[in-house]
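Consider the tokenized backbone below.
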């Protein structure tokens, strides 16, 4: 079953499906912020228009390019394209993390401290993962590069896929989840995505050299 997702088209489709809602929402914000057309429930965001616009644009690029970069056929057959798109993906990831941190400082929060703290940790971790992934690529350490890029994608997009769990809760209860319940689900789901990314990242790592047991 898992082998199906090792093939390029199912993998790109699966990742694209899981992240379509946040990517589309971010694309709408890229248009709405300069056009002054934010909906009433997002007007808080207008307090930090530059960070929010950069955050949304970075989210679109990161979300669209991620699945393509992970498709083996692009890396193997079109290595130059993979490297060009990889630079855009890396810059987008840095902007996503840094603008996320700047939004935490600028936008009045309507979330619980649990989600705010987790967002801060994830924003910082995203920046660290991208820097580690790019420096591994520059050293031609491909297994580490692959692992750090998978981690960065899971950290960055893990928040977006939460729509996949919030929406069914909304359908079942008839109300959008709010407060501590919503934020516990949000953080739990995001952490689960990061753990899944970590598992996939470790799958491709060469086995560690065995240290001889001390007599
Ligand atoms: C480490 C990853 C991320 C962090 C730390 C982060 C952080 C934040 C923060 C602090 C806000 C303001 C929240 C508020 O309304 O109070 C926000 C909003 C937003 N983020 Fe992110 N984010 C991340 C990933 C993403 C991704 C991957 C996307 C899209 C693909 C995205 C798209 C958006 C959008 C569209 C909003 C505005 C929501 C609205 O208009 O109400 N974010 N983000």
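A designed sequence for it:
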């Amino acid at each position: 079953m898992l082998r199906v997702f090792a093939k390029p088209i199912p993998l790109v489709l699966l990742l694209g499906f899981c992240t379509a809602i946040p990517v589309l929402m971010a694309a709408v914000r890229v248009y709405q912020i300069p056009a002054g057309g934010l909906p009433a429930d997002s007007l808080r965001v207008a307090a930090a228009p530059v960070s929010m616009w950069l955050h949304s644009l970075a989210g679109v690029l990161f979300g669209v390019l991620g699945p393509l970069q992970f498709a083996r056929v692009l890396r193997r057959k079109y290595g130059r394209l993979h490297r060009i798109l990889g630079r855009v993906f890396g810059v987008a990831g840095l902007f996503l993390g840094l603008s996320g941190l700047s939004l935490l400082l600028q936008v009045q929060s309507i979330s619980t401290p649990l989600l705010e703290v987790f967002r801060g940790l994830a924003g910082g971790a995203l920046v660290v993962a991208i820097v580690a992934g790019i420096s591994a690529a520059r050293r031609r350490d491909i297994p580490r590069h692959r692992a750090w890029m998978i981690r960065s994608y899971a950290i960055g997009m893990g928040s977006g896929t939460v729509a996949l769990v919030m929406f069914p809760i909304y359908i079942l209860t008839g109300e959008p989840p709010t407060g501590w319940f919503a934020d516990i689900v949000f953080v739990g789901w995001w952490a689960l995505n990061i753990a899944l990314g970590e598992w996939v990242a470790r799958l491709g790592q060469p086995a560690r050299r065995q240290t001889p047991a001390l007599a």
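DSSP finds eight helices and no strands in the chain.
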